[in-house]
Design goal:
Two copies of one chain form a homodimer. Chain A has 208 residues and is mainly alpha-helical. Helices cover 74% and strands 0% of the residues of chain A. Chain A folds into two domains: 1-57, Homeodomain-like (Arc Repressor Mutant, subunit A); 64-207, Tetracycline Repressor, domain 2 (Orthogonal Bundle), CATH 1.10.357.10. Chain A binds a DNA duplex (30 and 30 nucleotides) through helix 3.
Chain lengths: 208, 208
DNA sequence: GAAAAATGAATGAATAGTCATTCATTTTAT
DNA sequence: ATAAAATGAATGACTATTCATTCATTTTTC
């Protein structure tokens, strides 16, 4: 996920240029929304000229799709790294993944604005919906497996892994919305407490 | 919040016409997103002519702002009605309000698409952000008061009303996102279980 | 090793299309 | 007949896309 280096204005690999333009697109979407993002502005944000975006991405639609893919992949790679490095128990992994969503590098208004911009168009643009849905499914599968293990491990009764998964992933998405809409009153510690409080309440043996 | 009746094509009160156009705008946003919503399409959706929207709303910006206000007011009136009619205990009111968010009339993809469309532009369009923030604050105040009463009533220790409020409102927002993005796998009962499971875990004396 | 040719990336002016907005005209209600 | 409301063609601004030209770098030739 490292952003390829851009050497000079005329010499840069195709891939590096695409990365540079995707980064510019992310900035534009965050500042002006998808509706307010124009090809010229993306080019100018990247310090390049008018036609450059059509040269590297066929069309605006394509640029936006690739940008969504990049954002989703960036998140996914952080998610996988966190999953791998945390542990050893499933409860440790679950907590680490929840905290990832609230880390300043992930839960940052500029990045959240991009996610919400795509979600906001998802019903109108089926490709966005399909892509978001696919990534969500992967996410839920991992969280679901961890919950199952925790439930089995703790012998919890009358708790359904899918329900807990839905509750947890919904909570973090909703906390993102709060951060986006009410940045003044949003408090990272309260967000963490909300998640942790839920985990403690549902899985007391693991999170007390 | 009743949608004013439109009698004939040429005789309709100014207010009725505005309502009619706002309804058309909601349909357009749901179908094509904010970016894809044009003044002509709104007019045509309403069965009226080109210039009509500029006649009744000064500009597109104004139309969108008024549409957001309408959507927020519609929700608010349902919220207040629910708050009033439920009870008697704060736990009954809280549960009723949570279930309101998951009712088919509220948690419906077409309506959710509109909310998310505005949220998706909120960072880029400060008027959207301010308005959403203001309505959110009212919501949180009511939920917060109910939680405080429940905590006091049950003598719950080490539970902070604000944290629970944030957790609950986030959860419902996140469940809305799931409904929007993954309608195929979304299950209203699981959503209800997620909310109810949280309430039971946090306020066992009230929700067992 | 230097000059010439080729390569491929970037530029930015031109094009075609879309859209919000305006307003002179038409329609309707009273 | 008059006022209010609606119409829809016209306008002007904006934007995605194209493409002929420019430029820096690399390769080839002698």
């Amino acid at each position: 996920m490292a952003v390829a280096e851009v050497k000079s204005n005329r010499t840069a690999s195709k891939e590096a240029r695409r990365q540079q333009l995707i980064q510019a697109t992310i900035k534009c979407i965050s500042k002006r929304g998808i509706g307010g993002t124009t090809m010229s502005e993306v080019a100018s944000e990247a310090g390049l000229s008018q036609g450059i975006v059509n040269l590297h991405f066929k069309s605006k639609d394509n640029l936006l799709n690739e940008t969504l893919r990049w954002v989703a992949e960036e998140y996914k790679s952080q998610f996988e790294k966190t999953l791998e490095k945390s542990g050893p128990g499933p409860e440790d992994k679950l907590l680490a993944l929840m905290e990832l969503d609230l880390r300043p590098s992930v839960c940052d208004r500029h990045k959240l604005a991009v996610w919400f911009a795509f979600w906001g168009e998802a019903k109108a643009v089926p490709t966005y919906q399909r892509m978001c849905d696919a990534y969500d499914r992967e996410y839920d599968e991992v969280i679901g497996r961890l919950c199952e293990q925790i439930i089995k491990d703790g012998g919890y009764q009358a708790i359904d892994a899918r329900t807990v998964t839905e509750a947890l992933s919904s909570m973090t998405d909703g906390l993102w919305l709060s951060c986006l809409i009410s940045p003044k009153s949003w408090d990272r510690q309260i967000a963490r407490d909300a998640v942790h409080g839920y985990l403690r309440a549902v899985f007391p043996k693991h999170f007390e």
